[in-house]
Amino acid sequence: MVDEFIRLHTPSGFRLSGVATAHGWHALAPYRWDAETGTLHRIEALPGGVTHLQITQPDEILVRADRTLTSADAREAERRLRWSLRIDEDLSEFHALCASDPALWEAVRPSGGRLLRCPTLWEDTVKTILTTNTTWAQTTAMAGRLCGVLGAPKPEDRTLRSFPAPDVVAANEAALIAHVRLGYRNASVLSLARSIAGGNIDLESLRASPLSTPDLRRELLRLPGVGPYASATLLMILERYDELAIDTALRAHVRRKYRDGAQITEREIRALYEPWGRWKYLGYWFDR
DNA sequence: TTCCAGGGGTAGA
DNA sequence: TCTACCCATGGA
Asked: Which of A33, A100, A103, A252 is a good FRET partner for A141, with 20 to 30 A between their CA atoms?
Protein backbone atom coordinates (compact mmCIF):
# COMPACT_ATOMS: atom_id res chain seq x y z
CA MET A 1 0.00 0.00 0.00
CA VAL A 2 1.08 3.57 -0.60
CA ASP A 3 -0.41 6.70 0.95
CA GLU A 4 -3.10 8.87 -0.57
CA PHE A 5 -0.64 11.21 -2.32
CA ILE A 6 0.91 10.79 -5.75
CA ARG A 7 3.55 13.16 -7.14
CA LEU A 8 3.88 13.64 -10.88
CA HIS A 9 7.14 14.98 -12.23
CA THR A 10 6.58 17.46 -15.04
CA PRO A 11 8.73 19.33 -17.54
CA SER A 12 9.77 22.85 -16.57
CA GLY A 13 7.10 25.44 -17.30
CA PHE A 14 4.23 22.97 -16.87
CA ARG A 15 1.28 24.82 -15.38
CA LEU A 16 -1.72 22.82 -14.22
CA SER A 17 -4.09 25.80 -14.30
CA GLY A 18 -3.20 26.54 -17.91
CA VAL A 19 -3.45 22.94 -19.06
CA ALA A 20 -6.74 22.36 -17.23
CA THR A 21 -8.49 25.44 -18.61
CA ALA A 22 -7.10 25.80 -22.14
CA HIS A 23 -9.84 23.45 -23.35
CA GLY A 24 -13.46 23.13 -22.17
CA TRP A 25 -13.17 19.51 -21.02
CA HIS A 26 -12.46 20.56 -17.40
CA ALA A 27 -16.14 21.57 -17.14
CA LEU A 28 -17.43 18.15 -18.17
CA ALA A 29 -18.10 15.49 -15.50
CA PRO A 30 -16.37 13.64 -14.00
CA TYR A 31 -13.88 16.52 -14.20
CA ARG A 32 -14.46 19.67 -12.20
CA TRP A 33 -12.17 22.67 -12.02
CA ASP A 34 -12.04 24.81 -8.87
CA ALA A 35 -10.47 28.10 -9.97
CA GLU A 36 -10.25 29.46 -6.42
CA THR A 37 -7.99 26.69 -5.18
CA GLY A 38 -6.48 25.75 -8.53
CA THR A 39 -7.69 22.19 -8.09
CA LEU A 40 -8.71 19.82 -10.85
CA HIS A 41 -11.15 17.28 -9.43
CA ARG A 42 -11.82 13.96 -11.07
CA ILE A 43 -13.85 10.92 -10.05
CA GLU A 44 -12.01 7.91 -11.42
CA ALA A 45 -12.93 4.22 -11.37
CA LEU A 46 -9.57 2.65 -10.50
CA PRO A 47 -9.26 -1.15 -10.28
CA GLY A 48 -9.42 -0.91 -6.49
CA GLY A 49 -12.52 1.29 -6.42
CA VAL A 50 -14.04 4.61 -7.36
CA THR A 51 -11.73 7.37 -6.16
CA HIS A 52 -11.98 11.13 -5.87
CA LEU A 53 -8.69 12.57 -7.13
CA GLN A 54 -7.77 16.17 -6.35
CA ILE A 55 -4.95 17.47 -8.51
CA THR A 56 -3.03 20.60 -7.49
CA GLN A 57 0.34 22.14 -8.21
CA PRO A 58 1.98 23.61 -5.10
CA ASP A 59 5.34 23.06 -6.84
CA GLU A 60 5.21 19.78 -8.75
CA ILE A 61 1.88 18.12 -9.57
CA LEU A 62 0.34 16.65 -6.43
CA VAL A 63 -2.57 14.20 -6.63
CA ARG A 64 -4.53 13.53 -3.47
CA ALA A 65 -6.82 10.52 -3.38
CA ASP A 66 -9.67 10.23 -0.88
CA ARG A 67 -8.48 6.81 0.21
CA THR A 68 -5.23 4.93 0.66
CA LEU A 69 -4.23 3.53 -2.71
CA THR A 70 -2.58 0.25 -3.45
CA SER A 71 0.66 0.65 -5.36
CA ALA A 72 -1.12 -0.79 -8.40
CA ASP A 73 -3.88 1.81 -8.17
CA ALA A 74 -1.35 4.59 -7.67
CA ARG A 75 0.53 3.49 -10.79
CA GLU A 76 -2.69 3.31 -12.77
CA ALA A 77 -3.85 6.73 -11.58
CA GLU A 78 -0.47 8.20 -12.53
CA ARG A 79 -0.59 6.57 -15.98
CA ARG A 80 -4.07 7.95 -16.66
CA LEU A 81 -3.24 11.45 -15.41
CA ARG A 82 0.05 11.73 -17.29
CA TRP A 83 -1.91 10.97 -20.46
CA SER A 84 -4.84 13.28 -19.62
CA LEU A 85 -2.59 16.22 -18.73
CA ARG A 86 -0.31 15.49 -21.71
CA ILE A 87 2.69 15.68 -19.39
CA ASP A 88 4.92 13.68 -21.72
CA GLU A 89 3.84 15.25 -25.00
CA ASP A 90 6.57 17.13 -26.87
CA LEU A 91 5.20 20.38 -28.31
CA SER A 92 8.53 22.12 -28.78
CA GLU A 93 8.09 22.39 -32.54
CA PHE A 94 4.78 24.19 -32.02
CA HIS A 95 6.40 26.45 -29.43
CA ALA A 96 9.09 27.41 -31.93
CA LEU A 97 6.39 28.44 -34.43
CA CYS A 98 4.78 30.69 -31.80
CA ALA A 99 7.96 32.26 -30.47
CA SER A 100 8.13 35.07 -33.04
CA ASP A 101 4.64 36.35 -32.15
CA PRO A 102 4.56 37.79 -28.60
CA ALA A 103 0.76 38.05 -28.42
CA LEU A 104 0.33 34.47 -29.60
CA TRP A 105 2.98 33.17 -27.23
CA GLU A 106 1.23 34.96 -24.38
CA ALA A 107 -1.90 32.94 -25.23
CA VAL A 108 0.00 29.66 -25.57
CA ARG A 109 2.37 29.98 -22.61
CA PRO A 110 -0.04 29.16 -19.71
CA SER A 111 -0.82 25.72 -21.12
CA GLY A 112 2.14 25.24 -23.42
CA GLY A 113 -0.42 24.12 -25.99
CA ARG A 114 -1.47 21.14 -23.86
CA LEU A 115 -5.24 20.68 -24.13
CA LEU A 116 -6.75 18.55 -21.36
CA ARG A 117 -8.10 15.21 -22.53
CA CYS A 118 -9.65 12.16 -20.83
CA PRO A 119 -8.03 8.92 -19.65
CA THR A 120 -9.72 6.89 -22.41
CA LEU A 121 -10.48 7.55 -26.06
CA TRP A 122 -13.93 6.12 -25.33
CA GLU A 123 -14.65 9.04 -22.99
CA ASP A 124 -13.15 11.62 -25.36
CA THR A 125 -15.20 10.24 -28.25
CA VAL A 126 -18.48 10.32 -26.33
CA LYS A 127 -17.79 13.85 -25.12
CA THR A 128 -16.95 14.98 -28.63
CA ILE A 129 -20.27 13.55 -29.85
CA LEU A 130 -21.95 15.48 -27.02
CA THR A 131 -20.58 18.76 -28.43
CA THR A 132 -22.20 18.29 -31.85
CA ASN A 133 -25.18 20.36 -32.90
CA THR A 134 -25.93 21.65 -29.44
CA THR A 135 -24.97 24.39 -26.99
CA TRP A 136 -22.10 24.13 -24.53
CA ALA A 137 -24.63 24.38 -21.67
CA GLN A 138 -26.39 21.29 -22.99
CA THR A 139 -23.08 19.48 -23.48
CA THR A 140 -22.17 19.99 -19.82
CA ALA A 141 -25.67 18.91 -18.77
CA MET A 142 -25.51 15.75 -20.90
CA ALA A 143 -22.08 14.79 -19.55
CA GLY A 144 -23.33 15.38 -16.01
CA ARG A 145 -26.37 13.17 -16.52
CA LEU A 146 -24.32 10.46 -18.21
CA CYS A 147 -22.08 10.19 -15.15
CA GLY A 148 -24.92 10.78 -12.68
CA VAL A 149 -27.15 8.07 -14.13
CA LEU A 150 -24.70 5.43 -15.38
CA GLY A 151 -21.36 6.26 -13.74
CA ALA A 152 -19.92 3.93 -11.10
CA PRO A 153 -20.70 5.45 -7.68
CA LYS A 154 -18.32 5.71 -4.76
CA PRO A 155 -19.99 3.51 -2.09
CA GLU A 156 -19.43 6.02 0.73
CA ASP A 157 -20.87 8.90 -1.31
CA ARG A 158 -23.02 7.88 -4.23
CA THR A 159 -23.11 11.43 -5.57
CA LEU A 160 -19.49 10.89 -6.69
CA ARG A 161 -19.62 8.96 -9.95
CA SER A 162 -17.08 8.06 -12.58
CA PHE A 163 -17.49 8.22 -16.32
CA PRO A 164 -19.50 5.09 -17.25
CA ALA A 165 -17.70 2.18 -18.87
CA PRO A 166 -18.79 1.08 -22.36
CA ASP A 167 -20.36 -2.17 -21.15
CA VAL A 168 -22.49 -0.29 -18.63
CA VAL A 169 -23.80 2.08 -21.29
CA ALA A 170 -24.34 -0.84 -23.67
CA ALA A 171 -26.46 -2.68 -21.10
CA ASN A 172 -28.62 0.29 -20.11
CA GLU A 173 -30.37 1.54 -23.23
CA ALA A 174 -33.63 2.31 -21.39
CA ALA A 175 -31.92 4.44 -18.73
CA LEU A 176 -29.84 6.17 -21.38
CA ILE A 177 -32.90 7.22 -23.32
CA ALA A 178 -35.17 8.03 -20.37
CA HIS A 179 -32.75 9.71 -17.98
CA VAL A 180 -29.53 10.71 -19.74
CA ARG A 181 -31.43 12.28 -22.67
CA LEU A 182 -28.77 12.73 -25.32
CA GLY A 183 -31.42 13.26 -27.99
CA TYR A 184 -30.59 11.61 -31.30
CA ARG A 185 -27.02 11.13 -29.99
CA ASN A 186 -28.36 8.22 -27.91
CA ALA A 187 -28.09 5.98 -30.96
CA SER A 188 -24.46 6.91 -31.70
CA VAL A 189 -23.29 6.54 -28.10
CA LEU A 190 -25.16 3.26 -27.70
CA SER A 191 -23.76 1.88 -30.95
CA LEU A 192 -20.21 2.89 -29.98
CA ALA A 193 -20.60 1.39 -26.50
CA ARG A 194 -21.89 -1.90 -27.91
CA SER A 195 -19.10 -2.13 -30.47
CA ILE A 196 -16.45 -1.61 -27.79
CA ALA A 197 -18.12 -3.88 -25.24
CA GLY A 198 -18.57 -6.55 -27.92
CA GLY A 199 -14.92 -6.39 -28.96
CA ASN A 200 -15.68 -5.12 -32.46
CA ILE A 201 -13.85 -1.83 -31.96
CA ASP A 202 -10.59 -1.33 -30.06
CA LEU A 203 -10.61 2.44 -29.68
CA GLU A 204 -7.71 2.58 -27.25
CA SER A 205 -5.39 0.95 -29.78
CA LEU A 206 -5.63 4.13 -31.86
CA ARG A 207 -3.49 5.97 -29.29
CA ALA A 208 -0.24 4.55 -30.59
CA SER A 209 -1.44 4.04 -34.13
CA PRO A 210 1.22 3.91 -36.84
CA LEU A 211 -1.37 5.09 -39.38
CA SER A 212 -0.84 8.34 -41.28
CA THR A 213 -3.16 11.13 -40.23
CA PRO A 214 -5.40 10.74 -43.33
CA ASP A 215 -5.72 7.00 -42.68
CA LEU A 216 -6.38 7.56 -38.98
CA ARG A 217 -9.02 10.14 -39.95
CA ARG A 218 -10.73 7.54 -42.15
CA GLU A 219 -10.78 5.11 -39.21
CA LEU A 220 -12.33 7.73 -36.94
CA LEU A 221 -14.96 8.63 -39.55
CA ARG A 222 -16.20 5.05 -39.37
CA LEU A 223 -17.26 5.57 -35.75
CA PRO A 224 -20.98 6.24 -35.22
CA GLY A 225 -21.75 9.93 -34.77
CA VAL A 226 -18.25 10.96 -35.87
CA GLY A 227 -18.07 13.18 -38.94
CA PRO A 228 -15.52 15.74 -40.18
CA TYR A 229 -15.68 17.99 -37.11
CA ALA A 230 -15.58 15.17 -34.55
CA SER A 231 -12.79 13.30 -36.34
CA ALA A 232 -10.62 16.44 -36.36
CA THR A 233 -11.31 16.91 -32.65
CA LEU A 234 -10.31 13.31 -31.95
CA LEU A 235 -7.18 13.68 -34.06
CA MET A 236 -6.25 16.57 -31.75
CA ILE A 237 -6.82 14.23 -28.80
CA LEU A 238 -4.44 11.79 -30.51
CA GLU A 239 -1.73 14.45 -30.92
CA ARG A 240 -2.40 14.92 -34.63
CA TYR A 241 -3.01 18.63 -35.17
CA ASP A 242 -3.04 18.60 -38.99
CA GLU A 243 -6.83 18.96 -39.33
CA LEU A 244 -9.04 21.90 -38.39
CA ALA A 245 -12.26 21.01 -36.55
CA ILE A 246 -14.53 23.31 -38.51
CA ASP A 247 -17.66 24.06 -36.52
CA THR A 248 -19.89 27.10 -35.99
CA ALA A 249 -17.50 28.47 -33.35
CA LEU A 250 -14.52 28.33 -35.71
CA ARG A 251 -16.54 29.85 -38.56
CA ALA A 252 -17.74 32.67 -36.32
CA HIS A 253 -14.20 33.36 -35.12
CA VAL A 254 -12.72 33.46 -38.61
CA ARG A 255 -15.52 35.63 -39.98
CA ARG A 256 -15.14 38.07 -37.11
CA LYS A 257 -11.35 38.26 -37.12
CA TYR A 258 -10.50 37.97 -40.81
CA ARG A 259 -13.63 38.79 -42.83
CA ASP A 260 -15.28 41.65 -40.92
CA GLY A 261 -18.30 39.41 -40.41
CA ALA A 262 -18.65 38.32 -44.03
CA GLN A 263 -19.25 34.71 -45.09
CA ILE A 264 -16.25 32.47 -45.71
CA THR A 265 -15.97 29.08 -47.39
CA GLU A 266 -14.30 26.02 -45.89
CA ARG A 267 -11.65 26.19 -48.59
CA GLU A 268 -10.78 29.75 -47.53
CA ILE A 269 -10.74 28.76 -43.85
CA ARG A 270 -8.28 25.95 -44.56
CA ALA A 271 -6.11 28.30 -46.61
CA LEU A 272 -5.95 30.74 -43.67
CA TYR A 273 -4.40 28.14 -41.37
CA GLU A 274 -2.38 26.28 -44.00
CA PRO A 275 0.88 28.00 -42.91
CA TRP A 276 0.62 26.10 -39.61
CA GLY A 277 1.36 22.83 -41.39
CA ARG A 278 0.90 19.95 -38.98
CA TRP A 279 -0.04 22.35 -36.16
CA LYS A 280 -3.21 23.82 -37.69
CA TYR A 281 -5.54 22.81 -34.87
CA LEU A 282 -3.39 24.50 -32.21
CA GLY A 283 -2.70 27.42 -34.53
CA TYR A 284 -6.43 28.09 -34.64
CA TRP A 285 -7.07 27.26 -31.00
CA PHE A 286 -4.68 29.89 -29.69
CA ASP A 287 -5.59 32.39 -32.41
CA ARG A 288 -8.97 32.83 -30.75
C1' DT B 1 -44.52 28.65 -32.43
C1' DT B 2 -40.17 28.89 -34.45
C1' DC B 3 -35.38 28.85 -34.55
C1' DC B 4 -30.99 26.90 -33.72
C1' DA B 5 -26.72 25.45 -31.15
C1' DG B 6 -18.83 23.90 -30.89
C1' DG B 7 -22.87 18.27 -36.82
C1' DG B 8 -23.83 13.69 -38.77
C1' DG B 9 -26.24 10.48 -41.90
C1' DT B 10 -28.46 9.82 -46.03
C1' DA B 11 -30.51 10.34 -50.59
C1' DG B 12 -30.33 12.33 -54.88
C1' DA B 13 -28.05 14.97 -58.31
C1' DT C 1 -18.17 16.06 -54.36
C1' DC C 2 -22.20 18.97 -53.35
C1' DT C 3 -26.79 20.09 -51.55
C1' DA C 4 -31.12 19.43 -48.99
C1' DC C 5 -33.33 17.47 -45.44
C1' DC C 6 -34.06 15.25 -41.13
C1' DC C 7 -32.46 14.12 -36.77
C1' DA C 8 -33.84 14.74 -30.18
C1' DT C 9 -33.04 18.19 -26.85
C1' DG C 10 -33.85 22.48 -24.47
C1' DG C 11 -33.16 27.49 -24.23
C1' DA C 12 -34.17 31.95 -26.39
From this structure: A252
Closest-lying nucleotide for A139 based on CA to C1': B6
> For the range A217-224, what are the long-range contacts, defined as Cβ-Cβ under 8 Å and sequence gap of 24 or more?
A217/A243, A223/A125, A223/A192, A224/A187, A224/A188, A224/A191, A224/A192, A224/A195
Using C1' positions and the CA of A131, the closest nucleotide is B6
Instruction: Name which CATH class applies to A121-237.
Output: mainly alpha
Q: What is the pTM of this model?
A: 0.97
- Flag residues 170-189 of A with CB < 7 Å from strand B: 184, 188
Of A139, A149, A133, A190, which is closest to residue A28 (Cα–Cα)?
A: A139
Question: Does residue A30 have a cis peptide bond before it, meaning omega lies within 30 degrees of 0?
Answer: yes
Enter the DSSP assignment of A26.
G
The three-class DSSP label of residue A39 is strand
List chain A pLDDT tens, one digit each, 288 residues.
Answer: 677 999 999 999 999 999 999 999 999 999 999 999 999 999 999 999 999 999 999 999 999 999 999 999 999 999 999 999 999 999 999 999 999 999 999 999 999 999 999 999 999 999 999 999 999 999 999 999 999 999 999 999 999 999 999 999 999 999 999 999 999 999 999 999 999 999 999 999 999 899 999 999 999 999 999 999 999 999 999 999 999 999 999 999 999 999 888 888 899 999 999 999 999 999 999 999
Tell me the CATH number of domain A5-90, given options 2.60.40.10, 3.30.310.20, 3.10.180.10, 3.30.1240.10.
3.30.310.20
